[in-house]
Amino acid sequence: MGTVNRVEKKFLSTAGNLVPLLVVLGFLYPISQTTRRIVLDKELRMKEAMLIMGLWQSVHYLAWFIITTLQSLLVSLACAILLKSSYLRNSNFGVIFFLFFFFTLTSFVLAGLIASFFSKSRISSIVAPLIYFLFSVPLFAFGSVSGSVVSGLCILSPTAFAKGLMLLFNHELSTGFTYEDINSPFDQPNMILVLILLVVDLFLYTVLMLYFDAVIPNEWGTPRHPLFCILEPLRRFQKRKREWSSDEDGRNPLGVYETQTCEDSTRSAVRICGLTKVFKRDGEEFFAVNHLHLDLVEDEISVLLGHNGAGKSTTMNMMTGMLRPDGGDCYIYGHSIRKQLNRARQEIGFCPQHNILWPNLSCYEHLEYFSGIKGLTGSLQRKCIDAMLTGVDLQDKRQCLSSSLSGGQKRKLSLAIAFVGNSRLVFLDEPTAGMDVAARRHTWELLRRMSAGRTILLSTHFMDEADLLGDRIMIMSRGSLQCAGSSVFLKSNLGVGYNITLSVTRVASSQAIWNLIRSHIPPAELLSCNAGEITYRLPMDFVKNFPPLLRDIEGLGEKYGVQSYTLSATTLEEVFLKIAHGDGVGAIPAVETQPTFLKGDYLEMDEKGSKPVELEEDFSTTQKDTPRLVAHQPNRSRSNSGIETMSQLQTIWEAEVIKDEFGLMSSQLKASLMKRLLYASRDRRTQFIQIVFPVVMLTFVLLLQLVEFFSYPSLLLSSNMYGERVLIDLAACKKAINVSIPFAKSTSFGIHAIADTGDLYKYLIDQQETNSLNRYTSISCNDFFYRDRKILLYNGSALHSSALSLVGYYGSVLYAQLRGASTAYQEDIFLTRNFPMVQTAREHATSEAIKTVLMGILAIIPFSFIPSTFVSFVVRERECKACHLQKVSGMRFSIYWLSNYIFDFLCYLITAILAILIMLAFNRKEYISSEKIGATFVLLLMYGLSCIAMSYAVSFLFKQHASAQNVMLLVNFIAGFFMVLLVVILEMFESTKTAAKGLQWTFRIFPQLLHWGGHFEIVIIKGERGCAG
């Protein structure tokens, strides 16, 4: 039978399986960066901020899928055009395109799935490529396995993609891949199954991504129950669990609350009705927010204060919908957060404590995006953005990227985002943090202006800011509202009194002044008595006695040595401390110890009152403590700093330091090494990359080497293997063959009178019109030229057809002999298997060498990640100015780098020793035989030394340690895998061996290539000796 001519494609036939590996791993860096960007959005709290500002969760995911689909289309189109114009010229463009499209789309979803497990972008950018690499290598590592195993491995999308590429390249060796080959029975699995499995992977990864993104806890947001997809639908048909009543009042009954006027009630924009949240701690329930009742009035700024854990954040999270309340409700302009959350969020603007900004977007683009979420479009949107930029004094920065703004300018932009889009309820969390004094004043004025027509809830730690801006101030403690009202109301009802500060001369008598104060206000308390200044606290109940006291001080001031006085009311900070850090309303915290400069005489306070105590020294500037405060101190010898007045200071300043050069260098080296040891012992991420990951991967690779890569299973020969109906033509064989009982289910006989097998060509043409079944074999029993012989014909375009013709003939003869014994069909009565030929010694040695080299490439890849840990630490020290601090403190330049080099090498030495021990455990003679173990160990050591030096050299190119680590990971992976593989492929062909040698010399600047070269030289000795044997 004639065959079409074919041109041997040496490159594909030789490196056909390596090219798919290159293509698959070419997506490694994009997957890493996609994962990093998704996690960065979570790390910067972008997603939560957008949801709070009114973005729907479904819209967020839909927009992400649309963007990834468009990206997949562009990438797939470019890759398909590139391959179609180069390696796959005979293959169908549509098949190539859809294979790339389904894979790239699945890869984006895989990146999202990986990202759902991380909250730090730096860690995700390291782990994501490792996971993708592990998903990519099984098909190449396991070698020849059954089709069912490959189909199972295709649950990993990179493996499915690699299998599809192998099919394309294998078919390209013949006539190319066409639509007819998409369901070929000879490919196991075939292309249609690969595409279906990629679609299944896409659906599976999407479901897992959405699920894990919902249930895995993050810093922001509330995770859902692991069985939420089952429990939440069931709750609609079940009786509701116990819900805390919204009628209960969780306010402190001893608290003070300013009654709102009828006008305030009509202007109420936010009504909190019994809002409750209960958490469990050690199996016991406690109220994080205890039946909170509160109204926020429009046109006012309400300030929420409280210590850490008081319930402020929980309250805000429930009001913004980030946390579901266990009881009660919150109505935002009439919209319930429990039933109409999306409508309520359309009214919310949010300025978090940390700036939530995209580094690569300008100020205008930020406001344009968030105003778009609110529904602003067209000219009105532009006018609002311009007005907002002018309001926050950023009109000259409208086109500047947020990454170029100062800290104060970023806070202004975050503030503008909260107000843009006509948000009527604005949450401000530390809005002026990081601003200078002038910017804070400007922001206060802006907030005052912007409060018109809006409701603002502000949380701050600046008491002056709360005092100035707060129309209504609320203080929470232990989940309950303790007090609420204006600043004046709280001070008048919760104040601890007034403070009077007297400026005195050197001859003033503190006892005389004290008697004067007590004569008018007996409960007065002495707070401090410093050089030239005395401060007393006056209770608020004695305000009526203030005028005569002040008249006496003014009239008798010269007599008592009083130059001037200052009378100040209770500050908001004192009220806050009294509520937040006391035992409740009315509790006054103890006064802290204050240093005092005394002169003349002072008061010693005892249980009975006070009495003057004469001092030997006159007025001086010696630092001492007031006697009343000393009584509260357990240790009189210690000051506020914890340093003894004389002995410890003398120890510090009189300590002798090492003077000689060698001793100082030794001390610096020891201290620097100890610093690195303490840091490394707590850095789990570096320990994993530097020690755990290389050791685990090396063990995995050595386990793979136990698998027989070049052993193929036997093949059952039957016409059923073609997966379609087969016709066997018979000529004059009726007596010899039982045609009524075929020997395979898919086989049928056709009896035809072919006198001469030479007329077969004409016969097949004639039969094409009347019987179009495929023909792989034919049997002629009475040929015109060979009447005493049986002639077997076979289709040369079908695999195993020659052997199958023999199977068909002998099986038919056997069935003819059994014609009288049984007419039942028994398929297993005649089985024929084709076993692969046993390898020769040379073939076995060659296959072992190839396997070892391929496994060697996989083994050195984890070692390519190690240098990223070397560069990360030194760049981190420069980034946080620790390196500068060490140098200005006297650290020598040489000692700094020597200590880092020694420590990094010792850490790497642990990995190298563990690698040798693993090789010994697996008894890998090609590495640890008596003549090779020394070379292997030296190769590992020299690789570590060179990588450390290279990492230190390139560290000066970076300013951020995260960028340094990511770039080094990429460069080292390219050098340790792609460059090595490129050299291996080029060395396979005589025409490119010269180029391979040249590239080897060029790439030797990278230690990874030298590491692989040394590994190859060590292994190839065994291969050459095996071949020679």
From TrEMBL:
Top-rank taxon, per record: Eukaryota
Keyword vocabulary terms for this entry: ATP-binding, Membrane, Nucleotide-binding, Repeat, Transmembrane, Transmembrane helix, Transport
Transmembrane segments: 12-31, 61-83, 95-118, 130-156, 192-212, 691-712, 852-875, 895-922, 934-958, 970-989
GO CC annotation terms, alphabetical: membrane
Chief place of localization: membrane
Compartments, as annotated in UniProt: Membrane
Signal peptide stretch: none
Domain ABC transporter: 270-503
GO terms of molecular function: ABC-type transporter activity; ATP binding; ATP hydrolysis activity; lipid transporter activity
InterPro entries given in the database record: AAA+_ATPase (IPR003593), ABC2_TM (IPR013525), ABC_transporter-like_ATP-bd (IPR003439), ABC_transporter-like_CS (IPR017871), ABCA (IPR026082), P-loop_NTPase (IPR027417)
Membrane topology summary: Multi-pass membrane protein
PANTHER family reported for this sequence: ATP-BINDING CASSETTE TRANSPORTER SUBFAMILY A ABCA
Protein name: ABC transporter domain-containing protein
Organism, scientific name: Trypanosoma cruzi Dm28c
